[in-house]
Amino acid sequence: MEYEPLLEAMGITLVDINRIDRGKSVTVTMVIVAKEAEVSVDHCAKVYRLVYPRMELQLGERDLQLEVSTPGLQRTFKDVYEFGLFTGKRVRVYDTSKEAWVSGIIAQADQTSVQLSQVFIEDAKEMIETMSVAFSDIQKAKLDYRWEDDSHGN
To answer: DSSP per residue over the chain, as a string?
Structure first.
C-alpha cells in the first residue's frame, strides 16, 4: 500500500482499506489507528487531507468519495494481523477449545496465537491472569470496550 509510509511518518497505522468502484465513482473507506494515542477526529482529518488529493489524481475523471474512520469500539477482526495492531486493547474472542467467549487484554501476538492478560471466561464467570489462545481456536474476535476499564486513560 503506497500510503503506509506516509501514514507511518504521522504515527498512524492503516488497519483496513476497502475500495468500491461504481461506474464513474469510486468509494474508498480507510480505518486507521494512532500508535501513541487514541485515534481522534483530528487524526482522521489529517489522513483525509493527505490521501484525498493523491487518490483524486490517480483516478483522473472519476469521482472519489473517501471516508477515514476509527476502528470503532467493537470492531470485528478480519484477520490475525489485527491482533498485533490492537496490542494493549481489550478483545473478546470465541474460543472453540473452551466453547466459550473469552475477554482479555492483548499482551502480544505471534504467528500462531495471542497472549491475553486480565482474562475473563464469560460462561464460567472465571477470571484468570493470563492465557494463550491459538488462532486456530478462535472462531470470532472483536474489540471489547468496557467502560469500567476507562480509569487508566484508555
So the answer is: -TTHHHHHHTTEEEEEEEEEEETTEEEEEEEEEESSS---HHHHHHHHHHHHHHHHHHHTTSEEEEEEE---TTPBP-STHHHHHTTTSEEEEEETTTTEEEEEEEEEE-SSEEEEEEEEETTTTEEEEEEEEEGGGEEEEEE---GGGGGG--
